[in-house]
């Protein structure tokens, strides 16, 4: 279970004590966010790439291009924190998982779904965007307490993002 809370007026925020009934596992340290522009290429498993019918050689070139972009922009090879763009997923493309969630299914392969659900997943993943990506190796918010490296990914439909509706977001946790 997750919830995305968007607050436009930061002046209305007030500090509160952490609720006693919540597990300490759900408690994270606050941290400042720095913003900068960065290129992010889609995963070789993303529908944008799959629709192009890439060969193995094309997939390798995509991977090399991503490495070159990271080197030039000093982005590094870590997952990193990210707002919008293409998710730098650890285990497959996050859009696929979000599209499964959008039709009420847990993680399955496309072949396990009936034709109608397959088509809905394939169509829905084209409309869901990365809202926020969180790198679990960042020690400042203390995400490393989960004992693994990986990423936390939040997705949102284009329409909901455009309308500022954060009630229907999607969540994916991928780790190693």
UniProtKB/TrEMBL annotation:
Pfam families: DUF1963. InterPro entries: DUF1963, YwqG-like_sf. It comes from the Bacteria. This is Uncharacterized protein. It comes from Formosa agariphila (strain DSM 15362 / KCTC 12365 / LMG 23005 / KMM 3901 / M-2Alg 35-1).
């Amino acid at each position: 279970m997750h919830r995305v809370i968007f607050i436009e007026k930061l002046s209305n925020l007030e500090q509160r004590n952490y609720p006693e009934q919540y597990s300490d596992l759900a408690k994270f340290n606050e941290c400042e966010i720095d913003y900068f522009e960065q290129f992010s290429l889609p995963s070789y498993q993303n529908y944008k790439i799959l629709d192009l019918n890439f060969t193995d050689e094309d997939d390798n070139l995509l991977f090399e291009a991503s490495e070159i972009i990271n080197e030039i922009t000093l982005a590094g090879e870590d997952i990193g924190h990210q707002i919008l763009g293409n998710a730098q997923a650890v285990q497959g493309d996050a859009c696929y998982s979000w599209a499964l969630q959008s039709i009420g299914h847990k993680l399955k392969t496309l072949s396990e779904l009936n034709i109608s659900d397959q088509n809905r997943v394939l169509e829905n993943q084209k409309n869901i965007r990365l809202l926020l990506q969180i790198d679990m190796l960042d020690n400042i918010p203390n995400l490393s307490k989960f004992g693994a490296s990986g990423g936390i990914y939040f997705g949102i439909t284009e329409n909901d993002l455009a309308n500022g509706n954060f009630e229907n977001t999607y969540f994916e946790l991928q780790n190693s």
